[in-house]
Amino acid sequence: MILLDTIQAAHDRIRAHIHRTPVLTNQTINSLSGADIYFKPENLQKIGAFKARGGLNAVLHLSELERYHGRTLGPVTTHSSGNHAQAVAFAARQVGTTAYIVMPRTAPQVKKDAVRDYGAEIIECEPTLEAREAGVLEVIGRTGATLIHPFDDDRVIAGQATAAKELIEDVGLDQPFDVIMTPVGGGGLLSGTALITHFLSPETLVIAGEPEGAADAVLSFQSGRVEKAPYINTIADGLMTSLSERTLGYIREHVTDVLTVSDSEIVAAMRLVWERMKLVIEPSSAVPLAALLKHNERFAGQKMGIILSGGNVDLGRLPF
C-alpha cells in the first residue's frame, strides 16, 4: 500500500539525484484551449523523462536494504521501450551496479544509445510484451538480476508520484487544480499522480490521455479488469503497454476518466508545444494536451496541470 509517507520517503530518497523541474505556462496555448494550464516539463528531467524518478526510487531503495544487511546490490534488470530502460540504467550507474535491459528491436535508436551510454547491456527482443517478459526471465536465470518492473511495482509508482507532488506544491496548494492530466501506458505515472493528488489535493480530478492506437486503459477502466487494446498502431511508442492489476486498482479508485486521441491529434499537440513553448517533447508526452484540446469545452475556464512526460524523440524521424 502506498501512503503519503511512502511518497514523501521516495522524494527524500531521490531528491539529490533528480531535477525539481519547473512549472511553465504559455498564453497562446491557454487561448487556444480556453483553460489555465500549468505544464510540468519532465522532458527536462534527468534521462529526459519522468521515469528517472521511479527507477531511482526502486534501485536506491533496494540498495538501502542490501546495505542494511551488509551486502552490495547485485545486478538489476527490466524491460522497456526506452524511458524506463534509461531510468534503470542511470540508477544502476548511480549505485555502482550492472543493469541488463531488454528492449524491443523497434525501440527508438536515441533511447538505445542512451541506455548504452549509461553502461547497461541491452538484450533486444521482438516488440511484444510476451517477448519482453521472456527476455527478462532469461536474464534473471542467467545473472540472478533483480527485476525493476516498469510500472507494476509500488516503489516505481511512489517515485513517479513525486512529479505531481512537486507540481501541486509549487502552484496547486493555495488555489488547487481543477484537473491534473497525464498520459497512460502501463499506468505507473497515472497511478502515482492519482495517489498523491488524492493525498494533497483531494478536490482535484485526475484524467488520463491515451492513444486510440493503444487503447487498453480506457477499456480496462470501464470494465474493471485488465484488457488488451483492440490493435496497436500509434506514434506514441511509450504508451503501448497494458495496465497491470496493481495500476488498474489505483486508477479505478482515484482516476476520473481516460480520454483517447488520434495520432494526428497527438502530432498537432506535439508540434504546438515545440513551436510555442520551444520544448522538445516526444509523442507520448503530447497525449494529455491533445486530449485537453480535443475536449476544450469540457475544461474551459479551469485550472489544469499537465505532466509532459518526456522528450526522448528521434530527431531524425520527426512527424512534422
TrEMBL record:
<protein>
    <submittedName>
        <fullName>Threonine dehydratase</fullName>
    </submittedName>
</protein>
<dbReference type="GO" id="GO:0030378">
    <property type="term" value="F:serine racemase activity"/>
</dbReference>
<dbReference type="GO" id="GO:0008721">
    <property type="term" value="F:D-serine ammonia-lyase activity"/>
</dbReference>
<keyword id="KW-0663">Pyridoxal phosphate</keyword>
<dbReference type="GO" id="GO:0030170">
    <property type="term" value="F:pyridoxal phosphate binding"/>
</dbReference>
<dbReference type="GO" id="GO:0018114">
    <property type="term" value="F:threonine racemase activity"/>
</dbReference>
<feature type="domain" description="Tryptophan synthase beta chain-like PALP">
    <location>
        <begin position="15"/>
        <end position="310"/>
    </location>
</feature>
<dbReference type="GO" id="GO:0070179">
    <property type="term" value="P:D-serine biosynthetic process"/>
</dbReference>
<dbReference type="GO" id="GO:0000287">
    <property type="term" value="F:magnesium ion binding"/>
</dbReference>
<dbReference type="InterPro" id="IPR001926">
    <property type="entry name" value="TrpB-like_PALP"/>
</dbReference>
<dbReference type="GO" id="GO:0005524">
    <property type="term" value="F:ATP binding"/>
</dbReference>
<dbReference type="InterPro" id="IPR036052">
    <property type="entry name" value="TrpB-like_PALP_sf"/>
</dbReference>
<keyword id="KW-0456">Lyase</keyword>
<dbReference type="Pfam" id="PF00291">
    <property type="entry name" value="PALP"/>
</dbReference>
<dbReference type="GO" id="GO:0003941">
    <property type="term" value="F:L-serine ammonia-lyase activity"/>
</dbReference>
<comment type="similarity">
    <text>Belongs to the serine/threonine dehydratase family.</text>
</comment>
